[in-house]
Amino acid sequence: MTGSPPRILLVEDNPGDARYIQEMLREAVSFEGRALDGGRAQSDANASGPADTLVHEKRLEAGLERLDELAVDVVLLDLDLPDSNGLDTLTTLLDHDDTVPVVVLTGLRDRNVGTEALRRGAEEFLVKDEINPGLLVRSLHHAIERREHRLEQKRYETLIEESTDVNAILDTDGAFQYVTPSASRVLGYDSDSLEAEAAFEYVHPEDRPAVREEFEALLADQDYRATIDFRFEHADGSWVTLNALGRNLLDEPAIEGLVVYTRDVTEQREYERRLEAQRERLAALNQLNGVVHGVTEAVIDQSRREEIEQIACERLAASDSYELAWVGEPDPETQSVVVRAEAGASEYLDRVSLSVDPADPRSGGPTGTALRTGEMQTVRDIGTDSKYEPWRGVADEFGFQSSAAVPIRYEENTYGVLNVYADRQNAFRGEERTVVEHLGRLIGHAIAAAERKQALMSDTVVELELRVTGIGEQFGGMEMPAEPMRFNRTIPVDGDNFLIYGTLPADELPVLEDMVAAVPFWESLDVVGEQVDDVRFELQVSSPPLMTEVASLGGAVQEVVLDGDDLKLTVHLPQDVEVREVVETVREYYDSTKVVARRQVTDRDSRSERLGDVWANELTDRQRTVVETAFYAGFFEWPRVSSGEEVADSLGIAGPTFSQHLRASERKVFARLVGEDPEDTEFTD
Description:
This protein is α+β, with helices and mostly antiparallel strands. Helices cover 39% and strands 25% of the residues. It contains 23 helices and 24 strands.
């Protein structure tokens, strides 16, 4: 009835009374805010249709035929008709159809007739000359409500017939709609106290993920038959093991819910656990414990992150329980998932691709979901699980039947995801799921410990990659460069003044000039060099808020890339700086800031090694000769002992050639000294 007015069958032979009732129904407001008769009252057998809301018949026999033809919600019945009289009229109608609610109409004022009509099965009794539109609507409404109550009673009877022990009806949110009274004997709860309660709250936390998977599968497929064992909390605080069977009866009018039939198998399962060793699960647990020990040893041995991840993958893949294990992490630029370590049937990884981009359908699988949510994802049957559709064909070739994607986490840091594949269905349940999930946390803890140890043993910093979206709004909606603009190096000059050097395509220079004019703390712009397609520029800034704040926390902005409407920042921070504080500081200026990556990088001052490498490997023999001759001839003294022309003469070369070799050598040395690539030098021998 929800969403449409009820269909009313009026059985009345008096034309005046019928017209009067029809007029009242036209004036009345229906249950859903519509006129009860929709403005269409049908008075003859040929005028009715499926959309009619008021159907009028004058004889009982015709009314019974209408009950057979139409889905009628309520009957308005006059007791005195041409072919039936008195209370027998009501009895005959109810004998014909006892499911439809009946409101009796009569001109008699004898209340005894009304009482007897109610006793024989009428829902309401109305005297015609006492009826008004409001009373009529309320009577119809109450009659239909009572019919719904009878359906609820039938629902109860259906459950009793189906019941084996404790049965329940759940709604689509997993709340109890109904529980059989046997719940008191088996679970210790009065059945009424469970109604409207969330069923999952009573399931043991370790069993809850598997139960929810079955519930969602049942909800998605009406033909699915759920079956599972799980622990349910007894009223006394203990745990009862239930074997549950589930059916989707949402379309069954007497049920309209998900039916769960359960029986107490606590003693049976306990007996089975004592007598039967579940070989596969125990073997998997033993092998998982070996992996745990291996990772623990890696931490003790002060292993690097790469070693920890590889050890975990190798131990898992070497066991009889698993076919492949690999560790992946998202690429911040492409948002694809890249492999960091793998062992086992690694050819599988050559044929699949994954993503964490919500717009990419490849992100909807276990790996992408685990990386986005930080929660373990399992696929109990790869052959049927819709989440595995993009990779099912390849997985079938390798015999994979179930998988787990376990986030590698420590505190708020997600280092990646550990993926494990088994050639058996329903893996990663119960204790096996718990241990695999624990392994992800252990690897995360191990990586964090290894990085801390590495930080103590070397000069390392925290490198933070940040992405700011919608940056154009920060510049007042002005045009952003179509090609990437790179701010490669920031040099503090004095106080809050900085020089920023970068590159951009030559045709984007006007855009940068407009930005300099618009940004208050961008003081001036100079072009310092031109290449084939790019321009090198120098930007002088004064008190830039972001750089100043990061510098006040002991950090430094290493690189900024403006790519369309996105701003990408790379920041180096000391080990003891609270990363969250830095991120919150950046968000004060750019509220759309997101952390893309966090890693430990070496920042050891190795200038002497750099210079030695340039001297030995980057300078040509001729350039080394020129530099050595100039040095020992006193060219670099002040005042100079020898001029450039004199050094050139001693080498037998022209003065310009001497200057070119010397300038090329100097550029290579200084390029490596400040961290640039010497191969970018413009001068060659």
